[in-house]
Every structure is written in C-alpha cells, then in structure tokens.
Amino acid sequence: MTSSAWQKSSYSTNSNECVEVRTADGLIELRESDEGDIIVRTTPTKFAKFLQGVKAGEFDHFAD
Questions:
Q1: Position 1 pLDDT exceeds 70
Q2: Nearest-5° Cα angle at 18, 59 to 10
Q3: What span, in angstroms and rounded, lies between the C-alpha atoms of 40 and 3?
Q4: How far is CA 18 from CA 12, 25, 26, 63, in A?
Q5: 53, exposed or middle or buried, with CB in 10 Å at 0-12, 13-18, 19+?
Q6: Is residue 41 predicted with pLDDT exceeding 70?
Q7: 15: which strand partners?
Q8: Are 6 and 21 in contact (CB under 8 A)?
Q9: Does residue 18 contact residue 36 with C-beta atoms inside 8 Å?
Q10: Is the pLDDT of residue 33 over 80?
Q11: Confidence of residue 51 (pLDDT cuts 50, 70, 90)
Q12: CA dihedral defined by 59, 17, 25, 28, rounded to 10 degrees?
C-alpha cells in the first residue's frame, strides 16, 4: 500500500480535534485526529465534488 503522510488543516493549530487527509493507493482517506482507527475512503473526483459543495455552502444547514 502506497500512502502519503496524514495532513491536517492549518486552521487546526495544535488541536487534536480535526480532520486529517492523505492519499493511499489512488484514493483519498479521511479520519478524525481523535478517532484515528476510523478511516473513510473515497475517490479524488468525489472528494473534489464534496469540497466544492462545502465551499458553496451546500452543507451549511447541518451546522445549525
């Protein structure tokens, strides 16, 4: 398995409560820093569409 190192947002500072991302075997993997054993995998295309939706405010109603 070819994997890159886990990266977290620069907005997280030194907090352990953030989402981390990396690439692994052509997929994107996501996990929470404090729950590192739970990993979500998706394709780069689906992840890019998700990020576009986040930036467009598509999921803002979940933050209420």
A1: no
A2: 95
A3: 14
A4: 6, 23, 23, 16
A5: exposed
A6: yes
A7: none
A8: yes
A9: no
A10: yes
A11: very high
A12: 10
Q: What is the spatial order of strands in the sheet that 7-8 belongs to?
A: 7-8, 19-24, 27-32, 35-42
pLDDT at position 46: 98
Residue 46, C-beta contacts closer than 8 angstroms, at least 6 positions apart? none
> Which residue type sits at 54?
V
In a 13 Å sphere around the CA of 23, the CA atoms on its Cβ side amount to 7
Helix (H) / strand (E) element for 40: namely strand 35-42
Residue-averaged pLDDT of the chain: 89
**What does the block give as tokens for 63?**
């933050």
| Separation of alpha carbons 15 and 55, rounded Å | 23
